[in-house]
Every structure is written in C-alpha cells, then in structure tokens.
Amino acid sequence: MADYYKILGVARNASKNDIDRAFYKVKSKFSSEDVEDPYFKNFYRRILEAYNVLSNDKLKTQYDQKFDFSEQKISNGKKEEEKILNEPIIKYFKSNQESLGKGEKLILSWEASFADKIILDPVGKVSPTGTKVIWYDDLAEGETEYNLTAVNENSGRKVSRNIQVKKQFSQETEVLKDSVDIPKEERKEELQDSENVSSVDNKQNSNLIRKYAIPVSIGILFITAGVFFFNKAERDVVEIQSEVVDELSTQEEEIEKSLIALDWKQIQREKQLLAQNLKVSSKSEDRRILEFLDGYRALVNQMNQTFYEDENYEKVSSALYTDQSENKTEASKFFEKLENNGFKISQSEGSPFIEEKSSHLRSVLEPNISDATALGYLDLYLESIDSPCCHDAALMISFDDLINRTYHWGELITKAENSSLADIASRRFANHLYLLFLGIDNTPAFDYDSEMYNNELLKKLERHKLDYPSALSSLEVSNYLKLLESEEYIKNDKVVDYVRGLSGASFDLTSKSYFERFRDPDFRYIPNAEKIIRLSDAENRRDFSKIGSFYAPTVNRYWNDTIVDYTNLKSLYETAWSNSDFSWNHIQNIEEYEGNNLELITKFEYVNKDGDTIYQFSSTHFVFNEDGLIEEVYGVDSDNTYKSLRDSDFDYISDEEKIRRLLKAEDDRDFDKVASYYSSNLKRYWHITEPTFREIGNIYRDAWNTTSYSQNIILNIEKSGFRTYDVQVRFAFYSKNQNQPEAKESFTRYIFNDKGLIEEVYGLIDNQG
C-alpha cells in the first residue's frame, strides 16, 4: 500500500481537520473531466484512497498498525516519525505467465519497501515499484530466471525472490499491426495486463479499493508529471471511459439475476438516447463526437460505481486471477454480457473495471461522422484504448510508436484549428512530448545512474526530424535537442523545468502565446538593441521558435512583404535558409534612432549551393511596437553599412586622398571597400540616378567579369569646384573578349557631400562609362 500521508502531504500526527484541508486543497486542482485523463487517473485515485482511509478513525488505525508506524521521543522533547523496519521487504514479485509463446510478451511486476537499492537480474537497477515488459524474441532459449533483490544499505540486509519463465515453441500467435494510420508500421500488439493483487492476503485493502477506486483505463502512476500538470489541466475528453451500443437495438432487458446486478434496461435506454442525439444534432461534427463520448463516459462511470459497490466485486476480481475460482462460471457469464453489450472488463493495479470496446464505439460513430479531422481524432482516441501507452508507470509501447503518436497529435493540432478538438489535441501532444523528453518512472528517458539521455531514443528523434522536417513534432523535438546539447545531454533542473513548462503551452504556430514560451525571462527588461543581438543569434542557429518570440503577431512589413503573420514569417525564413547550407550574422554595429527605430549593420556570411562562401555587408532597419516586439523589418542603404571598412584616418584625410584610395580598392576588386567611400544617398553614378548599393555593386562586378586584370593609373586630379574633383586616369586592363591587354583614358568627376562621402560620379566625355 502507498504512503497515504505522503500523498496528501500531511504529517503522521495530523488532525482530521488537517487531513480534510490537505485533501480538498489537492482535489481542487482537478476538474471532473481531469480524472478521466490517463495521466491523472491513478494519481487522483490514490488521493481519494488516502483521504478515505486517513479520515476514518478505524481504517486509519488499521493502516498505521499494518505498516507499524510509531512515534518516538527524542532528547529535545519533540517527536520524530520514523519507520521501525530496517528489513527490506518484497511485497510481491510476479509475472503474467509462466511460459511465453511466439508473439507474446512477459510482464514482470514488483513492489518493495524499506530498500535503498532494487536490482532485477539480468535487467539491472530498477525502481522500488515497477513493471518490466519482455518480448518473446528477447528471451533466451529454454528457461530464464529473473531474480529481484532488495537491499537495505543501512542495515546491510537484503532479500531476494525469483521467477522462472519458459520459452515455448509449440504455439504461434499472430503479430498484429499498429492501428496508427500514417505512417503505418508493423509492431507487436500490446495486450493490456495489470498487477494481480491478492484478495486473500489483504482483504481489507481489496475492500477499500472496491469501495473507493476511480475507474482507470490505463495503469500509469504519473505522480511527478501530474503534480505539475494538473494545475493547468483543462477539460479533456481524450481518454473518456465510455461506450456505445448498437443504435438499432431496441430490445429492453430486465435486470437479470447475475453475479453483478447492473440495470441493463436503463443502460440500454441511455445508449439509445446518445445514439439518437448523435444522429439528429445540428452541431458541428467535432462537438457531436465529443458530446457523444462525454455521455458515454458518464454512463460507464455509473456502471463502475455499481460494480465497485456490489458485494460480489471481489469474486469477480478473484475469478480474473485464477481458474480454480468457484465463481469462474458466473463471472464468465458477466464478462460475456458486457462484451455483447459493447463493454469489456479491464484491469489496473489488480483492480478490474468496466470500459468501452473500441470496435463497438467505432461501429456507431463512423457512420455518423464524415469530417476527416473528427475521424482522425477518433482514430487516436480508440488507439489509446486498444493499446495504452503506459501501465504501472512503465511505457508499454515502443519508442517508434510513441514518436508516431506524438507526430499525429501534433498534426491534429494544425488540422483542428478553430475547432473544439484543438485544445484536446494540444494537451495530448504535450503529454506525449513529456513521455518522449523525460519518460516515466519505470521507463525513464534518462539513464538511472549517469542521467544521460537515452542514446537510442536520441537517434530516433534525430531521424524523425529528417523524415518530417515541417511537422510540429519535429519543431518541438528540435527545440528540445538544442537544449539537451547545451546541457551536454544530462538531466538537470533546466531540462526538467523546460519539459514541465510544456503543460498548458500553446502549440498553435499562429498564436502569440506559442512564441511566448521561448522568450528569455528578462525579455521585458532588456533594451531593444539587446533583443536584436539575441535575434541574430537565433537566426544563426536557425531556431525559428526563438526567432518568432521577438516578432509581433502581425508584422506590418517584412522586407518586401506586408502584413505578415507567424505562418508566413516561418515560410519566408525557411525559404531563405533553403538557399544556403550555412549562414551567419557578424554584427558590426547597432545604431539607435528616435522612437523605437534601430539599424543593424552586419557582415552576412553564407555558403551557397555551389559551396562558395560569400560575405555581404547590409543594414537592416527594425521598428519595435509598445510591447517591445518587432513590427517592421526592411533593408536600407545607410552611411553606416560600410563604416567599419573605412580607414581609421578617414575623417582626417583630404578628398583627393580618398579618390586615390578608392581607385586602389577598385584595382583590388574589393567592392565592400569601394562602397565605403560612397554616400548611401548617391544622386548619380554615371548614367544611373539615385542608385542603390546593390545596383552599384552589380555594375562593378559586371565590369570585373569582362576583364581578368585592371589598373587605374592616375594622370591628374584637379579641383574644379566646391568639393568637386576632375580625375584623369589611364585605365589598363586585359580584355577577355579580345584576349589581349588594352588601355584607354577617362575623365571622371567626383563630388563629395558634407560628410566626406561621394554623392555623384560621372564621365566628362560623352562616350565614357
């Protein structure tokens, strides 16, 4: 039995009022729908069990006696609670079967107390309570012995139990395919098994479970995740425990004399009413399917309440675990009755409960639902019933299947936009990401000892990114792997807090709240210049989630595009990235102007598809809104663009010297240096008026491409007006077209502005240029 005091968070000497307050404080975190979520079910059930025992004086006394809790006085007069037992205890160690046939799996389960180290040989170190799944193909030939050892390091004592399992060859069972539609992969069918608790050894415990247990469809004790997830959890009907019967069935049966007395007549009426509402409702199909499942959840819960309170509940439980039960025949009839009416018996932690049959549920819903998104949701929902992801805090499906389910929940978010399924898909997606990123108690994503991330899972996540680069799941995986890399793939508080933060997060790439997740904690307090530096770093890493966190939901202008949302922005970035294998912003300077206007000057480095490394200076103008988010981005020609390339004495040398150095830069064919002498507001360049730096650059490069060599030989520089110079040059070059050296003279006028930059250049002879 679990530590009920620890579950409620109270001391062992807590008063009844303390227990009441603790229970209602924890219970208030759950809504009625939350307790149906597979990630919360077992946790909520144990909270309820703990309260029911500790709030009842008689049951509390029995509970305390059973675990032999006592209080002992210490020297300062205070009482300290401690466990007396130093002897390690293995409460149970069992398997679901003694021999294994082809296609089957072995489920080992155990629980130990008062032990510091639990070793399952030949598996290795395990947690005190857990489950291990072993497939037929993984068993050695013949018989295999599994030995569980519990060690109390304080006392030095240990205790062991073992199980012999035989590998059979006489029977062949079919290996089924996964029910996931896209992409379909063959795998072994997961069979839902549960722990077999002994009703003989602990009858009081069994009565307690029978009376107070909440129905659970999968046995996942996810306390660590649940403690942080439930305070943000909202209404989620993904794991609804409901069922539908054939809508055409009109026969009403009287309550029969059977092992469990369910009111089948009332059950039939309620099922028929739900089926009829499904047909005639004028609501959207996503609402119809959810309301239908919601109704069946309530129906199954009512049936389970009757089931738990029935005096024969324990007989049914006993009949499930042994063929020698005297109630086996009657129990079989009850099971058959459930099957015929669209229900089935399932088990969790040794406790049987009623739940829906997915095949029957599908047979009623599919004929009445045509919307592809609603049907996609139904497929994922029924898959979780047929093949639960987890059981007894252990993963029951392969890593491949888990990644596949995560992918499909992510795709459903996009498809279900603006429908009632969107929030549900987001929560299911977040839960599956939690399993991928952190794992659960008995199937952790990090190694128990080294705390390094599972290498096999890491490789599969990297493969998923390559297979589905545009998928939402790949985006989240990419963000997480970048974090892991920065933390050297070791589990720490930063990693755990990040994953826990996914609870309640938005995964809608069109929403502002999605990108808020990726903002730095100090985002609101840092200056806009610092934001630009961090944005550039995110662009270097091609991390769009981080990039998007700096932008407003609607960007009024992004270079040549206007009114750009997050989806369009992502597409523009991805298109740019697709043209280069590598890119990097080397920040030269950031200029701040009035208001929220800033100018970023960068030396942009990138590798084109031909493998050439290109460098390009540019200036980008940013406009921030009142919230500190970017609402405009566009390129500008600025006097600051090439400022970093100017000589240190630029402001002190004469205009004539600048002309000499400009012509030398032309000889060196260094356009960036050439451009540093020109004004961004160039009025005229030969025959072009008000040219941009890009246009001037194209003219220079075209000229250089026609010659393999060129040199400006200055013959004369004469000042002809205010900051105006006429330059006579003998231009020598090697013509590629003529395949011979040539030379010609030119007369060019240069006019400087008051900043010492050239604002006009043109030839003095008509046939020049």
From TrEMBL:
It holds the Pfam family DnaJ. InterPro entries: Apopto_cytoskel_mod, DnaJ_domain, DnaJ_domain_CS, J_dom_sf, NTF2-like_dom_sf. CDD domains: DnaJ (cd06257). SMART domains: DnaJ. Residues 3-67 form the J domain. It comes from the Bacteria. Keywords: Chaperone. This is DnaJ domain-containing protein. The lineage of its organism: Bacteria, Pseudomonadati, Bacteroidota, Flavobacteriia, Flavobacteriales.
